[in-house]
């Protein structure tokens, strides 16, 4: 496994088809015949897509416009362009193509079942093997529906979330049916068993049970994730007991537990000889006296052999591309649906819960790991060649995104090293197969950043961007990540250039990019350039919106522009030159919502503190800080200050207190951090930046948790129970109480970016639950 140190950039794709990283040749323009052939042809297109060549991918998918497999490929291309490049204009095209694929899949499923019914003696079913006819097209249909729903969610608005859930409502029963059909005995046959979360942290390496192939490799990542989320994976035992959400697959050949009865389209996975034995045990017992011991032993051996054969049949991997698609696709669709629902804001969850939706995030992550593990790595963890089902790659991408979001936005991880290791294992597997893919390079850079190596992350991104662009929307993500990483390092000129570069690469909120770049120029002291960029904002804010509504960041920008103009007028200046009165960089303010200030160098944090502390009125806190003056009275945010002060409004002083509190916590100065965050929370007279109180409460909860972990490390401890249970119980209860208070600010339309706060609270609650499990509370 590669380390998180800086690595050389992957080489660009070569026209020589011999290296494993190069996508398969473009299929003939002659349409493929048969399900297996059409699937293989479409998979070749996906190989090009994952290797970062969307033009070749489209050519491959266009080879058979009548195939629902190829239509889905075209829809995925449009979806990825819309999602990765934040291109609102492409959402309509993505929806159109996905709708065509949905209709085509439904028609193909009906025709497949009709054809098979007419030929009852048919055994091959064109690659479908052991599964019922048409199941592969049911999966295609589910894929199209969930992507349609996610297209609606791209707006990051509550309306978009509602539309997303409306679309997914149509697929809910299908996902559940597919999962129960393909996995009637649960996922345990595809995943390994690990001990339930204990007091051991990542300092004690994970002990992996013996397993083969990639299913166990990636499934171990999912089980590690469930530990991070505070959900216990199944414990290893000769005959595991069934889980309420995941029925256990028998692992003992001598006495496998009988699966629950199910009406599975694939009956051989839904029942076993052992179940027949259990139902006939009473009658067999009455006859045992009439059977000799030798005959009884022989019958028992035969029954055990039958049970073992059926167990192997249930647990064997898929054979052929169509079977693989059915297994990987069912796991992917079910896992993705559950994970998306679990990450929606609580208000949306509660409303759509009336429709009967339930979610199990731990099971979702396990299902995604099953899909990713079957397809991204071959035996013994070796990278596979092209031709494997694409659901595994998408499952890996979803898992990467989830772990990246947890590391970025949760603020605290119960076991951060394990989360990083899990994230890295998934990236390693897929990047080995597609080293030129921008999506995998992006996640490699994120791992470096989350591992406190921002310079290494910047180097990886910059080298990747030097390669020829063949998938602009994917490369846009590299620029977006680079811009935030440069800003975090106070490399303001480079950050400004990167944010402005984004306006050339996609059509998502140019106003947001301009506003952040203007903030960079404020920090550089180039207020003329900052004013030039701000002058362009009114026109940019008038551009057509997704759904006709402003994005959350644009709502905040409108308020800030009016705030600056009012301040400039109050101070006797020209309102048209309002940048003159900006004291705190708008870029640093927006960076709070992306949690940019958490993973910065000590020197960078100290530079921020020195800059903020120099503003008048000077900061005064009773808690000693080596970076701030100490006074006798408690620090408060006074509502009234003379107009000559740099910060003459409660809004600005509360914002400074919030930023200073975050910076002090980054420097592990927890006492002054808490005092400053409390001052931001309790600030009186805040009129515009009403989001500060809720975010301050969230950051106070993070501070409590980090301080508890930091105290354990200071004492030389590496175990999660360095504090006693009573101590951890107090810390966790206090953090949850603060999150409860922060929740009152989340999800409110009059509070800026409240849905993001809502999501962050949900992620942190999961980490708190994980910590409870680790310390045995």
TrEMBL record:
Gene Ontology cellular-component annotations: cytosol; mitochondrial outer membrane; nucleus
The protein, known as: Outer membrane protein Iml2/Tetratricopeptide repeat protein 39
Region (Disordered): 1-32, 225-260, 283-318
Alphabetical list of InterPro entries matching this protein: IML2/TPR_39, TPR-like_helical_dom_sf
Coiled-coil regions listed: none
Biased composition (Pro residues): 233-247
Stretches with biased composition (Low complexity): 23-32, 283-295
SUPFAM superfamilies xref list: TPR-like (SSF48452)
Biased composition (Basic and acidic residues): 296-318
